[in-house]
Amino acid sequence: MHVPDGFINAPVSAAAGVVAAGAVAVSLRGARRELDERTAPLAGLVAAFIFAVQMLNFPVAAGTSGHLLGGALAAILVGPYTGVLCVTVVLLMQGILFADGGLTALGVNVLDMGITTTVVAYALFRGLLGVLPRTRRSVTGASFVAALVSVPAAACVFTLIYWIGGTTDIPIGKVFTAMAGVHVLIGIGEAVITALTVGAVIAVRPDLVHGARGLTSSLKLRIDGELVDAPAPAPA
Fold it and tell me: pLDDT digits over 177-224, tens only?
């Protein structure tokens, strides 16, 4: 889904860059509320993980391949604002180091793969948790659905951007059919990777997962063969 240079005309690319820059500025302020001394290192690990996994492509259909976008994973693990920053850094490094996505189209790529996936995924994730039981399985299941939907949503946003400022003569109907069809399949892979990763982190450190805050189980004690809640520690 990385957009190369010249695929979207200059005015639309510039407008997308302005929107992306504004979203990054807002995310910088919002990330201050999401990060602390415990979760800040996790944000770096999430960015590094997304960067590494995006380099691995899996076959989809008709000779095409897909890879993790990472917006849903980042938003659920470290929060939506920090998630936007993580994906933006990954896209910037890919464009500079590997020419994966044009630098003049960086705003389009950030808007499409960074902002759209993160916002759509986190909004759907929070909506699902609002109606599901507050359990770790619910967090993992909501992560799967959120990631699954976020990828086709990004494909739809790209189609809209192409319809406004595309520089090729491909009919918009064919672009939408190709993008939506392939990225529904890519979304399945994204959902599996996201759910497995979120589930693994919740299993060992649920307190570090932004989307699982408040789900930490109370300590249990076995007394006379029965499990009971341990008394809360006395305040210092």
Answer: 888 888 888 889 899 999 999 999 998 888 888 988 766 554 455 666
CA distances from 82 to 27, 77, 88, 207, 210 (A): 6, 9, 10, 17, 10
Give the pLDDT of residue 219. 47
Give the largest CA-CA distance in the chain.
76
CA distance 211 to 202: 10
List pLDDT tens digits, range 76-87: 999 999 999 999
Please say whether the beta carbons of 17 and 171 come within 8 A: no
Q: Which of 38, 70, 216 is nearest to 146 (CA)?
A: 70
Please give the Cα distance from 111 to 119 (Å, whole number): 10
Structural domains in the chain?
10-229 (1.10.1760.20)
166 bridge partner residues: 8
Determine if residue 103 is left, alpha or beta; phi over 0 gives left, psi from -120 to 50 gives alpha, anything else beta: alpha
- AA letter at 207: D
Say if CB 147 and CB 73 are below 8 A apart: yes
- Rounded to a whole number of angstroms, the distance between the first and last alpha carbons of the chain is 53
CA–CA separation, 102 and 109 (whole Å): 9
- pTM score, whole prediction: 0.84
How many whole angstroms separate alpha carbon 91 and alpha carbon 199?
25
